[in-house]
Amino acid sequence: MTRIHCLNNISAKGTDLLPEGYQLTDQLEEADGVLVRSAQLHETEFPPSLLAIARAGAGVNNIPLDRCAEEGIVVFNTPGANANAVKEIVLCGMLLASRDLIGGAAWCRDNADDPAIGKAAEKAKKAFAGREILGKKLGVVGLGAIGALVANAAVDLGMDVYGYDPYVSVDAAWRLSTDVHHVTDLDDLCAQCDYITIHVPAMDSTKGMIGAQQIAAMKDDAVLLNFSRDSLVDEAALVAALEAGKLGCYVTDFATPGIMAAPHTIVLPHLGASTEEAEDNCAMMAVREMVDFIETGAISNSVNFPAVDLGPLRSQGQRLTIIHRNVPGVINDITDAIAEHGHNLANMLSKARGDFAYTVIDIDDELGADAVQKMEAREAVIRARVL
Fold first, then answer.
1. pLDDT tens digits, residue range 267-321?
2. DSSP state of 108
3. In this structure, are residues 47 and 17 in contact, taking their beta carbons and an 8 Å threshold?
4. Contact status, residue 382 vs residue 333, Cβ threshold 8 Å
5. CA–CA distance from 128 to each of 114, 183, 245, 277 (Å)?
6. CB-based burial label for 302 (10 Å; 0-12, 13-18, 19+)
7. In what order do the strands lie in the sheet with 22-25?
8. CB-based contacts of 123: which residues, under 8 Å, 6+ apart?
9. Cα separation of 288 and 15, whole Å?
């Protein structure tokens, strides 16, 4: 029996996909797999049985990736599963910043007891006048799953869209509308656009990527939207610009004391992926990734190990999966050990990612009962499984 532990409430549409032979457990200590959303795992001690952690979402800053790799635990995320939900809230944020809908709605609520509110509204509405987004320039920083959807939707709404992403993948490029202009300099994008939205992962290399220099380059009435991570924007430089009236508005999904005290802001309580559909999609994708890995050894969308897929299990023989350190000679050591015991290798795939690597080998016959123990006894091997 394979046991899966949920550290947060995971959509039943995901857990219902667990096949026969799997069961949910309340005990982390006996889990083979973990499904998680936002629970913090940096101080969590993982049991030796744990093979994989699947994050039902894109961000994985709540998971100790390096320690998981050291312990042979594959960590998955679900890129793109919540992309539509975030796209929609970005478009909503852009419209809220363009038309003072929040101010107008607040005025109506504040004057709800006025019997002549309809007539009064005709006089008051000029205070909430805004601008249209049609024909305006939108800069999209990061053209992954979410950024591409935002860019394409903005094109459909009649905006002039500019995209910046020095690491855009071939798949992402195919997803983009041909009407999106490619910009190679972030400062140039900031200077040209009326609206700028950020869609890059939070890493050391992206921390504060929108800083004083980029903000100074922006138009005086520009709208900056951040539905990715608060750390991507230099908060001190941003607050100074807002207080000086340099920016028209900052729309964000991340409340901090500094931003809450700043003028010209629209702050939401991290609602980007908070839709029923997004939670369902993330849960289903996380379960599929985890089950595929446990059943066939395939890795896709892992954030600490390379993508490896040797296809379905063969009708004869066995499959050996090995998580090991990325050091010279380890592949020869593994294959020599298999050959020395009289086994024939039918197929093999090995890939590395940083200090770690993953090798999957199909063997024509059956390995001995002690094959895993013998393989894990080798210095560079972290974890071995026979499927």
1. 999 999 899 999 999 999 999 999 999 999 999 999 999 999 999 999 999 999 9
2. H
3. no
4. no
5. 19, 34, 18, 33
6. buried
7. 22-25, 2-6, 33-36, 52-55, 74-76
8. none
9. 10
For residues 324 and 44, give the distance between their C-alpha atoms in angstroms, rounded to a whole number.
23
Structural domains of the chain in order of their starting residue, each with its CATH number: 1-81+276-305 (3.40.50.720), 83-267 (3.40.50.720), 308-387 (3.30.70.260)
Which CA distances in Å does 195 have to 101, 118, 356? 17, 33, 41
Exposed / middle / buried, residue 10 (Cβ in 10 Å: 0-12, 13-18, 19+): buried
75: β partners: 53
**Quick one: pLDDT at residue 172?**
76
Given the DSSP bridges, would you call strands 33-36 and 22-25 parallel, antiparallel or unpaired?
unpaired
The pair of structure tokens assigned to 155 is 């094109």
Q: Which residues of 185-215 are buried (b: 16+ CB within 10 A; e: fewer)?
A: ebeebbebbbbbbbbbbbeeebeebbeeebb
**Radius of gyration of the chain from Cα atoms?**
25
> Please, which residues have CB within 8 angstroms of residue 50's CB and are 6 or more apart in sequence?
31, 32, 33, 34, 71, 73
**pTM of this prediction?**
0.84
